[in-house]
Design brief:
single chain; about 160 residues; alpha+beta; globular
Length: about 160
């Protein structure tokens, strides 16, 4: 908005630098989210699905979803629990500012555990470690999948 005296309204006006900076920030965020989703689909989701299938063999209800959280951030979510009971879950969230959050909710204990990390944490060693901890904490269950995927001495 430009007034007759040539003074721009400070609140409503933005210089091109502000617009360019905002576009670049959005562009970087979009790039980060695409990279996050690509890593999740290639690396994390197969490990979550394998753990889910193993959990089902122990009589647990389980599902894996790649969706958006309540704030619109991409997430991979593993939800597990006894049939008819509240579910525990382990999620990987893409957070603006190029961060990943490993978030676990343990239904039986009503506990949340969060681990801020970099994109590099979406790798089989870290994920198998976190999945093993999640299943031990939530269900006192030791998964065989991570042990199959890693040599003796990994744990």
């Amino acid at each position: 908005f430009q007034a007759e005296d040539g003074i721009r309204d400070f609140c409503l006006s933005r210089g091109l630098g502000d617009v360019y900076k905002r576009q670049m920030e959005n562009s970087d965020e979009v790039r980060f989210q695409h990279y996050f989703i690509s890593l999740v689909e290639q690396v994390a989701k197969p490990l979550f699905v394998d753990s889910c299938e193993e959990a089902r063999s122990y009589g647990l209800d389980c599902n894996v979803d790649l969706d958006l959280d309540e704030d619109g951030h991409p997430r991979l979510r593993l939800e597990v629990g006894e049939p008819g009971c509240e579910k525990s879950h382990y999620s990987l969230l893409a957070i603006p500012g190029e961060r990943v959050i490993h978030r676990q909710y343990l239904a039986g204990a009503q506990e949340w555990h969060s681990l801020p990390a970099e994109l590099a944490s979406i790798n089989p060693m870290v994920l198998d470690s976190e999945l093993a901890v999640f299943f031990r904490r939530a269900f006192d269950l030791r998964l065989e999948g991570p042990e199959r995927r890693h040599p003796a001495g990994f744990w």
